[in-house]
Amino acid sequence: MERFFATRNGNDVHLTKEDEHHLLHVLRVREGDEVEIVDEGDLFLARVVSLSPLSLTIVRPLTRDGELPASLILAFSLLKGGHDEWVLMKGTELGASAFVPFCSSRSIIRLDEKEKAKRLLRFQKIVSGAASQSKRLKVPTVSPILSFAEALSYPADHRFFAYENLADDAFLLPQQFREIKAGESAICMVGPEGGFSPEEAKMALESHWTPISLGRRILRAETASLYLASIFAFLEERE
């Protein structure tokens, strides 16, 4: 069953124009068809009562949890070739609660303020669609595109950055993630195609970030983000 994020006024459902178009012209719903509606984290079954104009009404609340006990924030450098969009889409499917895109000294992509605003809108649209597709109860937030220094200041209970030159040779990531309690947040930072510079690694250490290893192999930047998200989700959902 299709799921949409919407707002409610009593039992009346208010969808975005884009979602209305999707229901009418892509899914081709009929009167009496039912869909799932999420409003501020609450899940409901809704029924189509009219097509012109499109009108839906709440049938009953549903109980189904699609969120992780702890919050994962993925901080990632802008990547070429649309690979950062892959991080957003698949990271949402894996349960990330927020994304922090940033530019670092070795980032290939460089944007002016107008381009940053345009890309942010694109990022938010990708995350919203992925949240609906993967049956999330919350749409992950996407912060404005930050500088590396600004990303270091992003608030979280636990802070990790993937930097093989400083991380312990032992693969300690599962143990480190197990220390995160339900209700807490963890931010994991992954650098660009060329990795973090030594100066950036020093800044991260001075800001009390924990360097982590991602194993014996060097991963592409987009793979590293999704690898972290997969381990985090696996450990959280095993509990």
Could you describe the 3D structure shown?
The longest helix is centred in the middle third of the chain and has 21 residues, at 113-133. This protein is elongated. A hairpin with a 2-residue loop joins strand 2 (7-9) and strand 3. The model has no long low-confidence stretch (mean pLDDT 91). The chain has 239 residues and is of the alpha/beta class. The protein has helices at residues 17-26, 83-93, 113-133, 148-152, 173-178, 198-206, 221-238, and strands spanning 3-5, 7-9, 12-14, 34-39, 42-51, 54-62, 71-77, 98-103, 141-142, 146-147, 158-162, 185-190, 210-212. The strands form three sheets. Strands 7, 8, 9, 10, 11, 12 and 13 form a seven-stranded parallel beta sheet that branches. It has two domains: 3-62, Hypothetical PUA domain-like, domain 1 (Ribosomal Protein L25, Chain P, Beta Barrel), CATH 2.40.240.20; 71-238, 3-Layer(aba) Sandwich (Alpha/beta knot), CATH 3.40.1280.10.
